[in-house]
Structures are given as structure tokens and as C-alpha cells.
């Protein structure tokens, strides 16, 4: 199965950093979250907000995440984030992010997310839904 990927450039800003001058680790997860949304936009041609109407869903909440920190990044660094959808399951999918500082791996991030819609019995709750076949097909081309 060949799944699609997306790469983007990010400049590390002052607000991304802790008092030691390096990226405060939760900021990487925010960068990865945005990268996941941009991956879907790149492949499906729809912004995350537009996916809601097109697929009667509310989003793809995180159910598991982790990262491996290899080298630090600091204010002013230009980095590249390569995001790849690595697996589809019935109602969940997995993403791998590689954050590169030049040619060096700085952070490797992993996400498992679910395709979610409103719960049929209680619209205040959410429920995992099967990922639409056409979404899977678009990632496999």
C-alpha cells in the first residue's frame, strides 16, 4: 500500500521556545497537528473545516501520540516537517512525522487518530465512524 505524504517548512518562533531557548516540547505536537491537517488538505483538496460538511464528520481526534526527541531546535531555526499516513484501519489511521533540521532528524512523531462524527444517541458526544472508502482511495493513488 502506497500512502501519500506532505512536506512543509516551518520557522521556529520565539513563542515556540522555553527559557532555555529551545523548542518547548508541546509545541512540536502543535506543529504535528497542523501538519496532519495539511496532509489531508493536500491529498483531498479540502481544508479540515470543509471535511466536516463533505464527510459528515467532526474531525479526527487524537487517541495516541508520542515522539522521539533526537536533537533540539531553537528560535530562528528553519525546519522541515514530512508527514506520512502510514496505515488506515476501520475508523482510525496512523501518521508519522519527521522533523528535520537541515538533513538531521530532530524529532520523530507518531499519531493515531480516529475519524469521528456525532454520536447518534447523543449529539453532545462523538463516536468513531468508518473512514470513507473514497478517502482511503485518494491516499492510495
How would you concisely characterize the structure shown here?
This protein has 141 residues and is α+β, with helices and mostly antiparallel strands. It has a single domain (5-140), classed as Hotdog Thioesterase (Thiol Ester Dehydrase, Chain A). The protein is built from 3 helices and 7 strands; from the N terminus they run E-H-H-E-E-E-E-E-E-H.
Fold and architecture overview:
This protein has three helices and seven strands. It has a single domain, classed as Roll (Thiol Ester Dehydrase, Chain A), CATH 3.10.129. A hairpin with a 3-residue loop joins strand 3 and strand 4 (92-101). The chain is an alpha+beta fold and 141 residues long. The model has no long low-confidence stretch (mean pLDDT 95). The protein has helices at residues 25-44, 48-55, 133-140; strands at 5-11, 62-69, 78-88, 92-101, 104-114, 116-119, 122-128. The strands form two sheets. It has a five-stranded antiparallel beta sheet with strand order 1-3-4-5-2, covered by helices on one side.
Task: Describe this protein with a few key phrases.
single chain; 141 residues; alpha+beta; Thiol Ester Dehydrase, Chain A; five-stranded antiparallel beta sheet; two-stranded antiparallel ribbon; 3 helices; 26% helix
Structural class: alpha+beta
* Alpha plus pi helix count: 3
- Please describe the biggest sheet, giving its number of strands, its sense, and whether it closes into a barrel: 5 strands, antiparallel
Percent helix range: 25-40%
Which architecture does the CATH hierarchy give at level 2? Roll
Number of domains: 1
Radius of gyration: 16 Å
Secondary-structure element order, as H and E? Answer: EHHEEEEEEH
By oligomeric state, this entry counts as: single chain
Q: N- to C-terminal separation?
A: 9 Å
Text of the CATH class: Alpha Beta
Percent strand equals 35-45%
Let me know the number of strands: 7
CATH fold description: Thiol Ester Dehydrase, Chain A
Overall pLDDT score: 95
Name the strands of the widest sheet in spatial order.
Answer: 1-3-4-5-2
